[in-house]
Every structure is written in structure tokens, then in C-alpha cells.
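Entry 14. Two folds queued back to back today. First construct below, sequence then C-alpha cells.
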Amino acid sequence: MDDESSPPPMRWVEHDGPRCVKIKRLIGAAITSRRGVDLVLRGDDRLRARLGRGCRTADLYSGFYIQPSEDGALCAGRDRVLARSGAECEITELLRLSPED
């Protein structure tokens, strides 16, 4: 039997981020925080979409999607994450993430 343990989970540090990101740059998403949804972008960049106070990330575990705007961008203060359960979560801020040292 192999005694190798798995590495500790990656910890992320939040930094000021853009107001908007082009949706075509998105390649994945994960719920890793009670405060928002992490967005994985082409080029190994990562953003956290911080969600409004009334939103519970637990509502998103059954799946969620982003409805694209006409300009092809996802913007804080304008767009929402839509849960398959029917919940809507306002994106209040986009934060750039970097690995904790």
C-alpha cells in the first residue's frame, strides 16, 4: 500500500481585479469559497467572482451558468451567476487570484 499523502489544497490570495472579463476567456469554474465562484481563464489566470450578500454558494452546487451579455463580457456590478435551482447571484466584484506563497 502506498503511503503518499495528497498535497494540501491550494490557497489563493485576492488582489484587485478587472471590472469585466471576456466570456470567451473562461474555461472552467469552481466553488472554492463561501464568498464567490472561482473562474479559470485561458493562460492559467484565475479570478474570483465575489457574489452579493443574499447569495449562498450552496445554492450553486447543483450547477450554475452565466448568461452572456451582448458585449461578450462578464462584468461586476452588472451580471449574475444563475443557479440551475433558479437562484440568481449578483457578481459584485471580480478579484484576481494568485497562489499563496
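Second construct, same run, same settings:
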Amino acid sequence: MHTSVGAIIKSNEKILMIDRATYPFGWACPAGHVDDGEKPEQALIRETKEETNLRIKKFRQIIHEFVEWNVCNRGVRGHDWYVYEIEEWSGELNRNKRETKNINWFTINEIRKLKLEEIWQYWFEKLHIL
């Protein structure tokens, strides 16, 4: 079992989304695995910085759930997810070209038209975003 974190970052009625360059493909919020010896909150800060260049200053956990069907690029099925809403952040947006094909801010209506990564489709529906 792997542990994963995700960051929902909002600004001006839009949500920050990345188009993954590696499996699982699709548009997603910044997310990634928790490394050995790392706390979910530490992974949240690290993964967001790696994928977006943004520095998280304040956040709150909105989901903690084990998702049995979620498969990652390491072939592991089942992830213990921690999803956070980012309340305060700083820095200049700059995508990680190795991990992402694109990065952008989208309205809810625009997100409805995107091909989302499966787990993010699940989270957005569960949170009544979509």
C-alpha cells in the first residue's frame, strides 16, 4: 500500500490543474506519494513545490480515505489518500516539465470538459465540485 497526498489550490474561482506526463495520465491537482519517513503534510509541501513551484503556507485536510482501486505508476493498487485544501500559498507558478505536460487554472465549467485522472474525477465528485 502506498500513501498519497493531493493539493486543491484555488484562486479567483479557479482551481490549479496539471496535465500529467506520466501514468496515471489526465488532468489532476498537484499530488504524489509520501516518501518513507515523511509525514503527509511534508509530502504535500514537497510535491506541490516540485510540480508547481508554489510554496504552501497554510492548508487544511479535507479527505483521508483508502482507495482500493487506485493504481499508480509503480504498479501498486490501493492508496491511502490525504487531500488538502490550500488556504495560503506563495511563489510564481512554474511547471515541472518532467512530470507535467501542462499546468493551468480552470473554472469548474472548464474542468468538466477535461479528461481527468480517475482519482481526481472521484475526489471532485465526492467533494461536490463536479
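Quick look at the second one. The mean pLDDT is 95. Strands lie at 2-11, 14-20, 27-28, 31-33, 55-71, 77-90, 100-106.
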